[in-house]
Write a structure and sequence with these properties.
single chain, about 110 residues, mainly alpha, two-stranded antiparallel sheet, 2 helices, 2 strands, about 60% helix, rod-shaped
Length: about 110
């Protein structure tokens, strides 16, 4: 046998599996990127909800002279809406003249 001639039986297994391994590696990297993007988006949405709640509370203070005593007051009178299946909101009132402490935790 000529030493410059390739033996097709010797490399057949690797040459057939190499595209599949490359495809699986690229698919894994793509899914990892999507997961990271999803977590970043959920964090930004929670921060946006927290800012909306605080802005509504400040608006209430400017209009009525007190911070609302509950989150439901903001929902009824100032149109605040959020999905309770996606977020847990802790709204702690310190006093009627002190800004409330707001924490938003995404569930997904």
């Amino acid at each position: 046998m000529n030493r410059f001639q390739k033996n097709p039986a010797r490399f057949r297994g690797w040459s057939a599996a190499l595209p599949a391994v490359f495809f699986l590696a690229m698919l894994g990297l793509f899914l990892l990127g999507l997961n990271s993007l999803d977590r970043t988006t959920a964090r930004q949405e929670a921060e946006g909800l927290k800012n909306s709640i605080l802005q509504s509370a400040v608006h209430c203070y400017a209009m009525e002279g007190f911070y609302p005593d509950s989150l439901s007051y903001l929902q009824e009178h100032y149109g605040l809406q959020y999905d309770p299946d996606r977020y847990v909101v802790a709204y702690e009132v310190i006093g009627s003249n002190l800004m409330p402490d707001v924490s938003v935790i995404p569930l997904t």
